[in-house]
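[Solved] Which block belongs to which protein?

Original post:
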Amino acid sequence: MEYPKEVLERARRVRFLLLDVDGILTEGRIIVDSEGREIKSFFVQDGLGIKLLQRMGLEVGILSSRTSLPVAFRARELGIETVIQGELEKGRLYQELLREKGLRDEEVAYMGDDWVDIPVLKRVGFAITVPEAWPPVKEYVHYITRHPGGRGAVREVCDLLLKAQGKWEEVWRVFGG
């Protein structure tokens, strides 16, 4: 797949991929069973993309305005150490994260799809959303994935980052035979 030059330039600088959950890592549905337990569906290929990024030296984190036990469980399963949940003011939390990690805006990619994501999307070096994002969000991003949220959008971005940073060949050497 061919990417615009500006997208590749932004992707080359990324050291940290920060992800919203509902609508990005999931299709955006919240299922609650008769006991009040939340159920989420995660796409396995997105998970493998995250693991590949980590293996190639990039860090991945989660920034969600909702608090969800399934998200915490999935993050642990994937080895995601930075998990911030339950706060609508994502811009403030993002600023704190930059300080903690010693990162600059241009070193961060963020995937979000709704109003609460805009403050972060406006700041990061590589702002990304999905095709079904709330329409105003699309005005603040550098890249809109071809795949929908919860169905390969995260994997698409992981592959893009690996290709832009020249790590795709190493992934193939290790896993492609």
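(Second protein starts here: sequence line, then its structure tokens.)
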Amino acid sequence: MLEIRKAGDAGDEVRQRILDTLSAHSDAAGHPFRPQTLSLEAWDGEIYLGGIIARSVSDWTFIELLAVSDAARSRGVGRKLVEAVELEARRLGSVGLWLDTFSYQAPDFYRKLGFEEFGRIGDHPRGQDRIFLLKRFA
């Protein structure tokens, strides 16, 4: 009998079971699914400035999280983090980067780095938009 269970605090274990299942299916279809996580941080001595987490899967790398501390904004930290992920993504054979952000966050920041919009969900969250951006490597 089918039973749906909450995973609780076992998020990493659940994630790995899902990834193993996806990998088996993708391998059988001839499209290997080998996600690689890229986690980078920016520090100034002992002062944390920000970080970025991205996942490289197949031909693209998805920037999942990027944050820069208030004290480090407008100092090029975010740009350097994105550029470092791009370098790693290219090394892994990705053809581009993609991400999503909200209209109240940093869409213009990403556009300055060469990203272009490829999708949008209006009124999410209410009164704002969720924006999907990509950057294809030359």
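Accepted answer:
You had them paired correctly. Confirming on the second one: The chain has three helices and six strands.
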